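Final paragraph of the annual report: two paired records, presented back to back.
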Amino acid sequence: MMSKFYEKYQQSLKSAELRRVKVTYLDGFEGFVLEENENGAVVYIVSAPSDPGYENSMMSVDPDQYEPIDQAEPTLSALDMIKQVSIEYLANKGLTICEDPSIGKTIMECPCSTCVESTLRDLGLVDSEILEIFKQVI
Protein backbone atom coordinates (compact mmCIF):
# COMPACT_ATOMS: atom_id res chain seq x y z
CA MET A 1 0.00 0.00 0.00
CA MET A 2 1.12 3.52 -0.72
CA SER A 3 1.79 5.73 2.27
CA LYS A 4 0.06 9.10 2.49
CA PHE A 5 3.48 10.75 2.19
CA TYR A 6 4.21 8.89 -1.04
CA GLU A 7 0.80 9.80 -2.50
CA LYS A 8 1.31 13.47 -1.59
CA TYR A 9 4.83 13.36 -3.05
CA GLN A 10 3.58 11.91 -6.37
CA GLN A 11 0.77 14.49 -6.57
CA SER A 12 3.26 17.30 -5.96
CA LEU A 13 5.59 16.06 -8.68
CA LYS A 14 2.76 15.79 -11.20
CA SER A 15 1.44 19.26 -10.42
CA ALA A 16 4.86 20.94 -10.43
CA GLU A 17 6.05 22.93 -13.42
CA LEU A 18 8.98 20.60 -13.98
CA ARG A 19 10.00 19.52 -17.46
CA ARG A 20 9.39 15.83 -18.16
CA VAL A 21 11.85 13.66 -20.06
CA LYS A 22 12.01 10.12 -21.38
CA VAL A 23 15.33 8.31 -21.28
CA THR A 24 16.06 6.89 -24.73
CA TYR A 25 18.49 4.13 -23.77
CA LEU A 26 16.40 2.74 -20.88
CA ASP A 27 13.05 1.61 -22.21
CA GLY A 28 10.21 2.91 -20.10
CA PHE A 29 12.13 5.34 -17.88
CA GLU A 30 10.52 8.77 -17.49
CA GLY A 31 11.09 11.50 -14.99
CA PHE A 32 11.09 15.14 -13.99
CA VAL A 33 14.16 17.33 -14.58
CA LEU A 34 15.57 18.71 -11.35
CA GLU A 35 18.75 20.24 -12.74
CA GLU A 36 20.33 20.90 -16.12
CA ASN A 37 23.97 21.85 -16.67
CA GLU A 38 25.48 24.04 -19.38
CA ASN A 39 26.20 20.99 -21.59
CA GLY A 40 22.54 19.97 -21.62
CA ALA A 41 22.98 16.97 -19.30
CA VAL A 42 20.16 16.64 -16.78
CA VAL A 43 19.60 15.22 -13.33
CA TYR A 44 16.07 13.89 -13.06
CA ILE A 45 13.93 11.99 -10.61
CA VAL A 46 12.50 8.78 -12.02
CA SER A 47 8.70 8.81 -11.95
CA ALA A 48 7.79 5.95 -14.30
CA PRO A 49 10.44 3.23 -14.47
CA SER A 50 10.09 -0.06 -16.28
CA ASP A 51 11.81 -1.54 -13.19
CA PRO A 52 9.92 -0.53 -9.99
CA GLY A 53 13.17 -0.67 -8.02
CA TYR A 54 14.26 2.60 -9.65
CA GLU A 55 11.15 4.65 -8.86
CA ASN A 56 12.02 7.92 -7.11
CA SER A 57 15.73 7.45 -7.86
CA MET A 58 17.74 10.39 -9.08
CA MET A 59 19.68 9.76 -12.28
CA SER A 60 21.89 11.81 -14.56
CA VAL A 61 21.87 11.55 -18.36
CA ASP A 62 23.67 13.26 -21.21
CA PRO A 63 21.80 15.33 -23.83
CA ASP A 64 21.79 12.51 -26.39
CA GLN A 65 20.27 10.05 -23.87
CA TYR A 66 16.89 11.70 -23.27
CA GLU A 67 14.08 13.41 -25.12
CA PRO A 68 11.44 15.82 -23.79
CA ILE A 69 7.89 14.63 -23.25
CA ASP A 70 5.12 16.87 -24.54
CA GLN A 71 3.61 18.46 -21.44
CA ALA A 72 0.24 18.92 -23.13
CA GLU A 73 -0.22 15.18 -23.50
CA PRO A 74 0.26 13.40 -20.17
CA THR A 75 1.54 9.85 -20.45
CA LEU A 76 0.78 6.99 -18.13
CA SER A 77 3.36 4.49 -17.06
CA ALA A 78 2.83 0.91 -18.21
CA LEU A 79 1.81 -0.01 -14.67
CA ASP A 80 -0.79 2.79 -14.53
CA MET A 81 -2.16 1.67 -17.90
CA ILE A 82 -2.42 -1.93 -16.65
CA LYS A 83 -4.32 -0.69 -13.59
CA GLN A 84 -6.67 1.43 -15.72
CA VAL A 85 -7.37 -1.37 -18.23
CA SER A 86 -7.89 -3.84 -15.35
CA ILE A 87 -10.51 -1.63 -13.72
CA GLU A 88 -12.27 -1.09 -17.07
CA TYR A 89 -12.21 -4.85 -17.74
CA LEU A 90 -13.72 -5.60 -14.33
CA ALA A 91 -16.43 -3.00 -14.86
CA ASN A 92 -17.27 -4.44 -18.30
CA LYS A 93 -17.34 -7.94 -16.85
CA GLY A 94 -19.99 -6.88 -14.39
CA LEU A 95 -17.82 -6.48 -11.32
CA THR A 96 -18.88 -2.89 -10.96
CA ILE A 97 -16.36 -0.81 -9.11
CA CYS A 98 -19.18 1.51 -7.99
CA GLU A 99 -20.65 -1.19 -5.76
CA ASP A 100 -17.33 -1.83 -4.04
CA PRO A 101 -14.92 1.10 -4.47
CA SER A 102 -12.27 -0.75 -2.46
CA ILE A 103 -11.64 -2.97 -5.51
CA GLY A 104 -10.52 -0.02 -7.60
CA LYS A 105 -8.54 1.43 -4.71
CA THR A 106 -6.79 -1.89 -4.13
CA ILE A 107 -5.78 -2.12 -7.80
CA MET A 108 -4.62 1.50 -7.93
CA GLU A 109 -2.42 0.99 -4.85
CA CYS A 110 -0.59 -2.00 -6.35
CA PRO A 111 3.14 -1.18 -6.52
CA CYS A 112 3.87 -3.55 -9.42
CA SER A 113 2.24 -5.60 -12.18
CA THR A 114 2.63 -8.81 -10.15
CA CYS A 115 0.46 -7.31 -7.43
CA VAL A 116 -2.16 -6.30 -10.02
CA GLU A 117 -2.10 -9.84 -11.41
CA SER A 118 -2.51 -11.33 -7.93
CA THR A 119 -5.42 -9.00 -7.17
CA LEU A 120 -7.13 -9.93 -10.44
CA ARG A 121 -6.71 -13.64 -9.60
CA ASP A 122 -8.24 -12.99 -6.16
CA LEU A 123 -11.23 -11.46 -7.97
CA GLY A 124 -11.70 -14.66 -9.97
CA LEU A 125 -10.03 -13.81 -13.26
CA VAL A 126 -8.26 -16.66 -15.06
CA ASP A 127 -4.95 -16.63 -16.95
CA SER A 128 -6.50 -15.94 -20.35
CA GLU A 129 -8.38 -12.89 -19.02
CA ILE A 130 -5.30 -11.48 -17.27
CA LEU A 131 -3.23 -12.06 -20.40
CA GLU A 132 -5.84 -10.18 -22.45
CA ILE A 133 -5.59 -7.21 -20.08
CA PHE A 134 -1.79 -7.14 -20.26
CA LYS A 135 -1.84 -7.50 -24.08
CA GLN A 136 -3.93 -4.34 -24.37
CA VAL A 137 -1.16 -2.40 -22.67
CA ILE A 138 1.84 -3.98 -24.38
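The closing record of the year follows.
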Amino acid sequence: MKLVRAVLALEVLTILLWFTRIRNVWSDDTTSSATRFVATALGLGFIAVATVALVAAWRLRTSPSGHRGAVMVIAGFAIGSSLYWLVRVIQIAGRDHALGFIIVHTLLGIAVVALSSLVLQRLRPDVTTLEPSTV
Protein backbone atom coordinates (compact mmCIF):
# COMPACT_ATOMS: atom_id res chain seq x y z
CA MET A 1 0.00 0.00 0.00
CA LYS A 2 2.94 2.33 0.62
CA LEU A 3 3.90 2.08 -3.05
CA VAL A 4 0.35 2.88 -4.18
CA ARG A 5 0.25 5.97 -1.95
CA ALA A 6 3.64 7.19 -3.22
CA VAL A 7 2.62 6.72 -6.87
CA LEU A 8 -0.74 8.38 -6.16
CA ALA A 9 1.01 11.41 -4.61
CA LEU A 10 3.28 11.73 -7.65
CA GLU A 11 0.30 11.33 -9.98
CA VAL A 12 -1.73 14.02 -8.20
CA LEU A 13 1.21 16.42 -8.39
CA THR A 14 1.73 15.54 -12.05
CA ILE A 15 -1.94 16.20 -12.86
CA LEU A 16 -1.95 19.52 -11.01
CA LEU A 17 1.25 20.70 -12.68
CA TRP A 18 0.30 19.69 -16.20
CA PHE A 19 -3.31 20.87 -16.11
CA THR A 20 -2.02 24.21 -14.84
CA ARG A 21 0.56 24.31 -17.65
CA ILE A 22 -2.06 23.43 -20.28
CA ARG A 23 -4.50 26.03 -18.93
CA ASN A 24 -1.78 28.70 -18.86
CA VAL A 25 -0.56 28.02 -22.38
CA TRP A 26 -4.09 28.13 -23.80
CA SER A 27 -5.04 31.32 -21.94
CA ASP A 28 -1.96 33.22 -23.15
CA ASP A 29 -2.80 34.95 -26.44
CA THR A 30 0.89 35.40 -27.28
CA THR A 31 1.60 31.64 -27.28
CA SER A 32 2.04 30.05 -30.70
CA SER A 33 -0.10 27.15 -31.86
CA ALA A 34 2.97 24.91 -31.99
CA THR A 35 3.83 25.68 -28.36
CA ARG A 36 0.24 25.02 -27.34
CA PHE A 37 0.23 21.70 -29.15
CA VAL A 38 3.57 20.56 -27.69
CA ALA A 39 2.64 21.59 -24.13
CA THR A 40 -0.75 19.89 -24.39
CA ALA A 41 0.64 16.68 -25.90
CA LEU A 42 3.45 16.52 -23.36
CA GLY A 43 1.10 17.18 -20.47
CA LEU A 44 -1.48 14.64 -21.56
CA GLY A 45 1.31 12.13 -22.14
CA PHE A 46 2.65 12.58 -18.61
CA ILE A 47 -0.85 12.33 -17.16
CA ALA A 48 -1.54 9.13 -19.13
CA VAL A 49 1.70 7.51 -17.99
CA ALA A 50 0.98 8.59 -14.40
CA THR A 51 -2.41 6.89 -14.58
CA VAL A 52 -0.95 3.70 -16.03
CA ALA A 53 1.71 3.72 -13.28
CA LEU A 54 -0.97 4.02 -10.61
CA VAL A 55 -2.87 1.05 -12.07
CA ALA A 56 0.42 -0.90 -12.19
CA ALA A 57 1.13 -0.08 -8.53
CA TRP A 58 -2.35 -1.27 -7.59
CA ARG A 59 -1.78 -4.54 -9.45
CA LEU A 60 1.54 -5.04 -7.66
CA ARG A 61 -0.26 -4.56 -4.36
CA THR A 62 -2.56 -7.47 -5.03
CA SER A 63 -0.04 -9.73 -6.78
CA PRO A 64 3.60 -8.63 -6.38
CA SER A 65 5.25 -11.48 -8.28
CA GLY A 66 5.41 -11.78 -12.01
CA HIS A 67 4.73 -8.15 -12.88
CA ARG A 68 8.08 -7.02 -14.29
CA GLY A 69 6.22 -4.80 -16.76
CA ALA A 70 4.40 -3.02 -13.93
CA VAL A 71 7.68 -2.37 -12.16
CA MET A 72 9.18 -0.98 -15.38
CA VAL A 73 6.20 1.36 -15.95
CA ILE A 74 6.35 2.72 -12.41
CA ALA A 75 10.12 3.15 -12.49
CA GLY A 76 9.93 4.75 -15.94
CA PHE A 77 7.33 7.24 -14.74
CA ALA A 78 9.38 8.20 -11.70
CA ILE A 79 12.69 8.45 -13.57
CA GLY A 80 11.13 10.22 -16.56
CA SER A 81 9.43 12.78 -14.32
CA SER A 82 12.68 13.48 -12.50
CA LEU A 83 14.70 13.83 -15.69
CA TYR A 84 12.12 16.14 -17.25
CA TRP A 85 12.19 18.48 -14.24
CA LEU A 86 15.98 18.43 -13.94
CA VAL A 87 16.28 19.56 -17.56
CA ARG A 88 13.37 22.00 -17.29
CA VAL A 89 14.71 23.76 -14.19
CA ILE A 90 18.08 24.23 -15.90
CA GLN A 91 16.34 25.64 -18.99
CA ILE A 92 14.22 28.02 -16.92
CA ALA A 93 17.19 29.22 -14.87
CA GLY A 94 19.16 29.87 -18.06
CA ARG A 95 16.52 32.08 -19.61
CA ASP A 96 15.46 35.62 -18.85
CA HIS A 97 12.79 34.83 -16.23
CA ALA A 98 11.99 36.67 -13.04
CA LEU A 99 13.67 35.31 -9.92
CA GLY A 100 10.30 34.34 -8.40
CA PHE A 101 9.42 32.28 -11.47
CA ILE A 102 12.77 30.48 -11.26
CA ILE A 103 12.37 29.79 -7.54
CA VAL A 104 8.81 28.46 -7.88
CA HIS A 105 9.76 26.12 -10.72
CA THR A 106 12.87 24.96 -8.88
CA LEU A 107 10.71 24.09 -5.86
CA LEU A 108 8.22 22.26 -8.08
CA GLY A 109 11.09 20.31 -9.62
CA ILE A 110 12.43 19.43 -6.17
CA ALA A 111 8.97 18.20 -5.14
CA VAL A 112 8.71 15.96 -8.21
CA VAL A 113 12.22 14.56 -7.72
CA ALA A 114 11.53 13.93 -4.01
CA LEU A 115 8.28 12.08 -4.72
CA SER A 116 9.91 10.15 -7.56
CA SER A 117 12.70 9.10 -5.21
CA LEU A 118 10.11 7.92 -2.71
CA VAL A 119 8.36 5.89 -5.42
CA LEU A 120 11.66 4.28 -6.43
CA GLN A 121 12.53 3.54 -2.82
CA ARG A 122 9.15 1.87 -2.26
CA LEU A 123 9.54 -0.03 -5.53
CA ARG A 124 12.92 -1.45 -4.56
CA PRO A 125 12.51 -5.13 -3.80
CA ASP A 126 12.74 -6.52 -0.33
CA VAL A 127 16.02 -8.44 -0.35
CA THR A 128 14.51 -11.37 1.54
CA THR A 129 11.62 -11.96 -0.86
CA LEU A 130 12.70 -10.10 -3.99
CA GLU A 131 9.18 -8.65 -4.08
CA PRO A 132 8.44 -4.89 -4.25
CA SER A 133 7.88 -3.42 -0.81
CA THR A 134 4.18 -2.77 -1.28
CA VAL A 135 2.94 -3.34 2.28
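Residues 2-123 form one domain. This concludes the annual technical report; the extension proposal builds directly on these records.
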